[in-house]
Amino acid sequence: MSSFSVTDTSSRTKRIAGTLVIVYALITMLPLVWIGATGFKSPADAISYPPKVVFSPTLEGYVNLFTTRTRQTQEYLQNNPPTNWADEIVRQYDMVIVGPSKFGERFLNSVIIGFGSTFLSIFLGTLAAYAFSRFKIPLADDLLFFILSTRMMPPIAVAIPIFLMYRNLGLSDTHLGMILLYTAVNISLAVWLLKGFIDEIPREYEEAALIDGYTRFQAFYKVVLPQAATGIASTAIFCLIFAWNEYAFAVLLTSATAQTAPPFIPTIIGIGGLDWPAVAAGATLFLLPVMIFTIMLRKHLLRGITFGAVRK
Amino acid sequence: MERVASATPSPIAHSVRGLSDRAIAWVFVAPTIFLLLAINIFPLIWTIQLSFTNYKANRIGREVKNVGLRNYERILTDTDIWLNMQATAHFLFWTIALQVLIGFALAWLINKKFKGNDLWTTIIVLPMMLSPAVVGNFWKFLYQPQIGLFNYIISFFTGVEPSSFQMLGQVNLAPWSIVIVDTWMWTPFVMLICLAGLRSIPDYIYEAAEIDRASKWRQFWTITVPMVMPFLMLAVLFRGIENFKMFDLVVQLTGGGPGSTTELTSINLKREAFEKWRTGYASAYAIILFVTVFGLASIYVKALNKVKER
């Protein structure tokens, strides 16, 4: 083959294409950058006109996000000097910190429910995907399609009977209830994606292991699992991101104990009136892990999105 | 080695020790099936059953009467629900149109393989990985008249007073405000699938076209577009289903308002089920929505398979 190929693009075309894509990327980033910046503004700076690009950063938003505060009399303020830097920030509005806010708890709920449901989806999903991939299961195709079609239901429609069922079983507003629900939603995609990954592993490896005296189960976890590790990892990320971002079920089925961060973050604004910096701070802390994840794991993730889609 | 392995008769490969393959298959599949039965199938059946009753979930003691098909009748003849359907159709049509156009264009540009295209692709993808509710909530801030960044930028480029229009508060603008945010979020999804399509086209097809002296323009319409079409149609299917279910982003942005201009079917359904507590009625509504999506998707998949066969 000659080194010249007609499909090579000229460097000028490349430059133009590159510029256009970068311009789009920068526009796309603007709202996200704005969230990040607003988190470090004072409430006054956040709502100033014209919007402030240069401002003196403050941690007010973050302090407000993590604490609850009350207004106090001048007398009280003078008699009780601020004890730490957070207190000092709050004092400029004649306020004192009275305790932690619920944000930490809600964030922790997101972590527990996210990881719990991801673990369960992957555990069950890998087993099912292996069985679908390797054994003859009656009506396998119909079953797989049916599993997938349950994702076409609007979440609100699913939530009606789940709400009634959980109320009867005492699973409303519990971590277990949310973990089971998110697992049920995720497992269809997990089985589908994982089956694709396991299909790609040659059967000969296991058959060789079986001849060597492994049981079927040993062959599964000593031969197949290590080979499918990448696929399992990228599927896990999709499950985790879904559970992390989910809002409709969370807002309808949880209210206190098991409430996750997405339904909670919008309510921050109500606590402090027009406290956009605190909302932005909460949003930043909530969105940042996903962004870092996406950038770090971009190779697997980008393949995963298209892979899962294209296979269907 | 491969040949040797596949030549081994498989009955021998089946170990006598441990569980039989058949048992393992069922042990492996059973938990998943059980979970789906409990949390997907059973609720679905229950919804169907509820849809024929006048059950209200907030009144536990009340007698539940069978009302036959009355819920369905009322929904299908309700003009307000047709307005919700229209709002949903507007949202679906424009988000898909814009996302296909921009997504395909971006994929085409990225496929020119300029330096650093990997990194920029990742940055473009970021919005679709984020929580729609949290992002939607923040876009509400960007859309504020006077103080919001969106209004400021529009006024900067067009000279219109930034306080003279309200993206979320005006009946003529609100439907577009949700289209804009959804397009911002989900264009990268269409882009990624198109990119997979573009990368699946082997170079030699273009080389052959070049030998036949087909112009670049002709190559684009006779090679690139038809080869990417199945991928593009798949992306449309996914976006269509997702946006038909749309709830979180829009509920946070507009809450269905002003009036009910952006009250998509999912939001309306939530009102009926969890605010008015008309559980039976809402169940019928849910079934109608499910049948609609399922029906449309099936027809679409048939069309998609035809395109693939060509």
How would you summarize what this structure contains?
The complex is a heterodimer of chains A (312) and B (310). Chain A contains 16 helices and two strands.
Describe the structure.
- The complex is a heterodimer of chains A (312) and B (310).
- By secondary structure, chain A is mainly α.
- Chain A has a domain at 104-311: MetI-like (MetI-like fold, Orthogonal Bundle).
- In chain A, 72% of the residues lie in helices and 4% in strands.
- Chain A has 16 helices and two strands.
- In chain A, strands 1-2 form a two-stranded antiparallel sheet.
- In chain A, helix 6 runs parallel beside helix 9 (175-199), helix 6 packs antiparallel against helix 14 and helix 14 runs antiparallel to helix 15.
- The longest helix of chain A is centred in the middle third of the chain and has 32 residues, at 103-134.
- Chain B folds into two domains: 14-50, no CATH class; 75-309, Orthogonal Bundle (MetI-like fold), CATH 1.10.3720.
- Chain B has 14 helices and no strands.
- Chain B has helices spanning 2-7, 10-13, 21-50, 70-77, 79-110, 117-125, 132-142, 149-158, 174-199, 203-211, 216-244, 248-253, 265-275, 279-309.
- With 310 residues, chain B is mostly helical.
- At the A-B interface, helix 1, helix 6, helix 7, helix 8 and helix 9 of A face helix 1, helix 2, helix 3, helix 5 and helix 6 of B.
Please name the CATH topology of one domain in chain A: MetI-like fold
Q: Any idea what the shape of chain A is?
A: globular
Instruction: Identify the CATH homologous superfamily of the largest domain in chain B.
Output: MetI-like
- Rg of chain A, Å, rounded: 26 Å
CATH architecture title of the largest domain in chain B: Orthogonal Bundle
Helix-and-strand structural type of chain B: mainly alpha
Helix % of chain A is over 70%
Number of domains of chain B: 2
User: How many distinct helices of chain A?
Assistant: 16
Order of strands, main sheet of chain A, comes to 1-2
What oligomerization state is this entry in? heterodimer
Describe the sheet with the most strands of chain A. Answer: 2 strands, antiparallel
Question: What would CATH call the architecture of one domain in chain A?
Answer: Orthogonal Bundle
Kindly report how far apart the N and C termini of chain B lie: 38 Å
The ordered H/E elements of chain A are HHHEHHEHHHHHHHHHHH
- State the low-pLDDT regions of chain B, or none: 1-16
